[in-house]
Design brief:
Length: about 450
């Protein structure tokens, strides 16, 4: 192959080619020199711009190289993954924070509920312990041991049930520090896994608190039910005891009315629910003692009634009762009354407006010894009975004529009974006016 001359115009074109595969090969006579570096068209070739090829044959003028696209895709994927990780972590943190706050709020509320249940249980426990102690003073007394009413057994059984509940220990409420700590969460950043762990702990504590509160509510209810049963049994027992006392009074009519009234007051107290706090062993003993006094009074008066030595006193008492218009009279006999004894007729009267009205008349022995010596002893007895009528005839006693004057009234009343004599009170207090006697005479 001959070397082209420097004047050959095709030389510049040939040099623009980076690689000519036929440059070192022998001329076969088939090549066309004009075709080397010279386009077949009439267009002028673009000289001086080498044709570049990529690694994989992609042209720089078309698509970027494949390794660059791969790097872009890798970076884009990494960014997406990073965004997803960051977003997931942020979401986890928010969810953990929300869960922690909800758990703390729920536990705080639950601890408050448990505290209320604890206080309610302890208050109920204190009540039943006090009740059990009071009822024990009844059941453990000698007086109760002698009781035969069926209600006594029921009371003892209810007390046994209560004793088991009253022996329970007091509850331990949540500490104020624990409740207060929940209102102020710890300062500083806490990763979501720590928040999740702490939230789980708070939730577990809330469940335990809820169970404890439920147990306390159940225990308080059981204790309250037992308390109600014991109160009912106690009320039934004392009502039965009061009924027995009523029957005793009815069967002992000769007993002193003042003793009967004292027992009546106790039976009213026994039946009064608002006074149940006083229903203890001492109260039961006082009822028993009052009953004993009524029985003793009945026995004494029955013995006197059967003894001829007391016949005059029985006659005087019966006479007084015949004038009393149903007012119960009780008598006391004394050697002296108001300092007056032998050779003096003397008496006093205490009148009461309760329990149907009753009076206690105190007479000295002279009234008995002088009963058959004239009418003055009877006049004095009538005077004392007149005192017993002041509540029954209160409008007359307080009339303009009498003006509530005790001795004027009693003397006028005795005179109205036909005793216009010194023993009616005339000797001691003077004679009332006829108008005053007329007013007293209306009390019949």
């Amino acid at each position: 192959m001959t070397e082209p001359s420097t004047d050959d115009s095709s030389t510049d074109v040939a040099r623009a080619v980076d690689f000519d595969p036929g440059a070192d090969m022998p001329d076969s006579g088939l090549s066309n020199p004009a075709a080397v570096g010279t386009p077949a068209t009439n267009e002028e070739p673009a000289t001086g711009y080498p044709i570049e090829h990529g690694e994989d044959g992609d042209s720089a003028a078309g698509h970027p190289p494949r390794h660059r696209r791969r790097r872009i895709l890798q970076l884009a994927g990494a960014a997406v993954v990073a965004a997803a990780v960051i977003g997931g972590f942020w979401g986890w943190s928010v969810a953990a924070e929300n869960r922690y706050e909800a758990a703390a709020s729920s536990l705080q509320s639950q601890l408050t509920t448990e505290t209320s249940a604890s206080h309610a249980f302890d208050a109920r426990l204190a009540d039943v312990r006090s009740l059990a102690k009071r009822i024990h003073s009844v059941v453990d007394s000698p007086t109760f041991a002698a009781e035969t009413v069926a209600e006594a057994g029921a009371l003892q059984q209810s007390l046994t049930t209560m004793d088991a509940l009253a022996a329970a220990p007091e509850s331990t409420p949540p500490s104020a520090a624990e409740v207060a700590a929940l209102a102020t969460p710890p300062a500083g950043y806490r990763p979501p896994w720590q928040l999740t762990t702490e939230a789980e702990q708070l939730e577990g504590r809330a469940r335990a608190s809820q169970q404890q509160g439920s147990d306390l509510v159940t225990a308080a209810k059981n204790t309250a039910d037992a308390e109600t049963s014991l109160n009912t049994a106690e009320s039934a027992f004392f009502s039965a005891a009061a009924t027995e006392a009523d029957q005793l009074i009815a069967s002992d009519p000769l007993s002193n009315r003042s003793l009967q009234v004292a027992l009546i007051r106790l039976t009213e107290q026994a039946r009064n629910p608002s006074m149940s706090m006083s229903h203890d062993g001492a109260f039961l003993a006082s009822m028993s003692d009052a009953e004993s006094q009524v029985r003793a009074s009945q026995a004494t008066h029955q013995a006197e009634l059967d003894d001829p030595a007391w016949a005059v006193r029985r006659e005087i008492e019966n006479y007084a009762r015949s004038l009393s218009n149903g007012v119960a009279l009780e008598f006391i006999w004394s050697p002296e009354v108001s300092g007056l004894g032998a050779n003096w007729l003397s008496g006093t009267t205490q009148s009461f407006d309760t329990d149907g009205g009753y009076a206690i008349i105190n007479l000295n022995y002279t009234v008995e010894t002088a009963w058959y010596d004239g009418r003055d002893a009877r006049a004095l007895v009538a005077h004392e009975v007149g005192h017993s009528q002041v509540y029954r005839c209160a409008p007359l006693f307080n009339s303009p004529e009498i003006k509530g004057q005790q001795e004027v009234w009693a003397t006028a009343w005795s005179i109205s009974q036909g005793f216009d004599i010194p023993g009616s009170g005339i000797e001691a207090y003077g004679r009332p006016s006829d108008a005053q006697v007329a007013v007293a005479a209306q009390c019949r």
